[in-house]
Amino acid sequence: MSHQSDSGAAQLLHDVVAIPSPSCDEAEAAAFLTSWMRRHGYDDAFVDEAGNAVGIIGTGSRQIVLLGHIDTFAGFPPVRLENRTLYGRGAVDAKGPLCAFAVAAARANLAADVQVIVIGAVEEEAATSRGAHYALTQYQPACCVIGEPSQWDRITLGYKGRLLLDWRWEGGLAHSAGEAPSPAERALDYWQGIKTYCDDFNAGIGSLYARLDPSVRDINTWQEGVNGVAEMTVGFRLPPNVMPDEIRLQFPASDGATVSGRGAECAFSSDKNSALSRHFRRAIRAKGGVPRFVFKTGTSDMNIVGPRWDCPIVAYGPGDSALDHTPDEHIQLDEYLRAIDVLTLVLETV
User: Fold this and answer.
1) Per mean pLDDT, which range of 29-33, 73-77, 172-176, 179-183 is the poorest?
2) What average pLDDT score do residues 165-194 get?
3) Residue 300 and residue 146 in contact, taking contact as beta carbons nearer than 8 Å
4) Rg (Cα) of the chain, in Å, rounded?
């Protein structure tokens, strides 16, 4: 790989990270990336009806979809480059993996029967995942790589599922000296029931991937005239074999409250011995690494497309996922470039 091509790859990442693109506001970044792809050898590049940035290279009948996401978590810490470390929102999650996809596809010497489709999906960080749901209707790949940070020498095989419960109670206020629970106490009672259930479920389970993990995402209380209101959102990370509907039915509303579910996704795990996995392992070894497998406690677009496309699939990309969503999000450029080398070799051999 030439020094100039390294510089161009690093410049692409810097430029894409420098464009704010929180969920539902990705248009500028998508337009920039598709313009870059048109200038760098793609046969076609466009923004699709969902707002995804799409680049297509090669004319073969065997589709390889590289599905990243161009939206980011909220907030925009200053973008800066220090000692070959790029700081900024999305550097890790997940513009680093997406830009690695874009560069690798442009560099690879593809087999005649291969067509590579790079997608920078919108709204992955939102419960809607609009970009991935649209991509499902457009392509039927022979294999798929999801663009998520795993570090350059690791391959992600699975993600836990998800469910969000929105709980709400509204009713007449009582004096604070009385026995009636306050709106806030009602919310805490609902949460305590969830916490107790999950603690019992997790007893004796050591694996984080096998645990049922709840969290309070938001909780607010306020007064509207003579009524008090409490709202709370509880999130669940679901292990394999625990379905969102099962959890939704386990925690119904009571005492005049209402509860509704959203963002439901089942856990998904891929085959560690698939041909795609073997290609990644060989490529990582060829670039001096020791490949390792990872199962993630969050969710990704793999949860959406994996069971429906039913093809070999893994998640891969540079960056430390512990930095996702943090004010200090950053990526090492040398790791990013090494991931591009791995991806290029995979695309040339898969």
Assistant:
1) 172-176
2) 86
3) yes
4) 22
Region at 34 (left for phi over 0; alpha for psi -120 to 50; beta for the rest): alpha
Q: In this structure, is the dihedral angle defined by the CA atoms of residues 213, 217, 219 and 224, taken in order, positive or negative?
A: negative
Q: Report how far residue 26's alpha carbon sits from residue 98's, in angstroms, rounded to the nearest whole number.
A: 14
Residue of 71, 153, 231, 341 with catalytic role:
71
φ, ψ at 301 (rounded to 5°): -70, -10
Say whether 148 is catalytic. no
Q: Which two tokens stand for residue 170?
A: 């509204």
Q: What is the pLDDT of residue 176?
A: 56
By residue count, the chain amounts to 350
Residues of 299-310 as b/e, b for ≥16 C-beta within 10 angstroms? bbbbbbbbeebe
- pLDDT digit string (tens) for 123-136? 999 989 999 999 99
Q: In Å, how far from its chain's centre is CA 65?
A: 16
What single-letter amino acid sits at 337?
A: L
Q: What's the longest Cα–Cα distance across the chain?
A: 78
The residues facing 314 across adjacent strands are 145
Which pLDDT does position 2 carry in this prediction?
A: 38
* Bridge partners, 45 (sequence order): 55
- Output the CA angle 12-17-22, nearest 5 degrees: 140
124 is an active site residue: yes
* Signed CA dihedral, 36, 39, 44, 48: sign only: positive
178: how many CB neighbours lie within 10 A of its CB?
A: 9
Task: Give the span between the Cα atoms of 38 and 42, in whole angstroms.
Answer: 5
Q: Distances from the Cα of 64 to the Cαs of 12, 30, 31, 52, 139, in angstroms?
A: 22, 20, 22, 17, 10
Burial zone of 80 (CB within 10 Å; 0-12 exposed, 13-18 middle, 19+ buried): exposed
Catalytic residue among 26, 93, 123, 124: 124
Is the Cβ–Cβ distance between 279 and 111 less than 8 Å? no
| Amino acid, single-letter form, for residue 320 | D
State the Cα–Cα distance between residues 224 and 214, nearest whole angstrom.
29
Residue 118 and residue 105 in contact, taking contact as beta carbons nearer than 8 Å = yes
Strand order in the sheet with 85-87: 80-82, 85-87, 330-332
Spatial distance between the Cα atoms of 324 and 330, rounded to a whole number of angstroms: 9
